[in-house]
Specification:
This protein has helices at 2-30, 34-60, 63-93, 106-110. With 136 residues, it is mainly α. It has one domain (2-98).
């Protein structure tokens, strides 16, 4: 009886984790710019993988599996937001366009001089004064 209960709880956790990962993949497709895509995927995948690991820990139940699951969840919660933040900052400073309907842009007020201009697909021609010379 107890084994069936643990199996049901583990199954619910794994289904819940899979649902979070599905929501994350839909957010990745539906969101309009890189910053919203990163937000959707980072949060949902972190919770999805965590629920899957909790489900596996419930199902197997031995101390080794539970310890590994807890350590992985702690590592995931401590590294995923930091990595997403750093990738988002790098994209912002590299000049990746923000969605037109973005209301608040806190980076603009904090980092006015650090942002590059928008990406152009055509390379601009160098002026005569900027071209390298071959002085010997």
């Amino acid at each position: 009886m107890m084994d069936e209960f643990i199996a049901v709880v583990a199954g619910i956790m794994i289904l819940l984790g899979s649902l979070f990962i599905l929501i994350s993949s839909i957010g990745l497709i539906r969101m309009p710019d890189i910053f919203l895509r990163m937000s959707a995927t980072t949060k949902a995948v972190t919770f999805g993988v965590s629920f899957n690991l909790i489900g596996a820990a419930f199902f197997f139940g031995d101390i080794g599996t539970i310890t590994k699951a807890v350590v992985i969840i702690i590592f995931l919660f401590s590294t995923a937001p930091v990595a997403a933040h750093m990738i988002g900052r790098a994209a912002y400073f590299d000049g990746v366009n923000i969605w037109d309907k973005t209301i608040v842009n806190e980076m603009e007020t904090n980092y006015k001089s650090g942002r590059r201009k928008k990406h152009n697909s055509n390379k601009t021609e160098q002026k005569e004064s900027e071209k390298p010379t071959n002085d010997k």
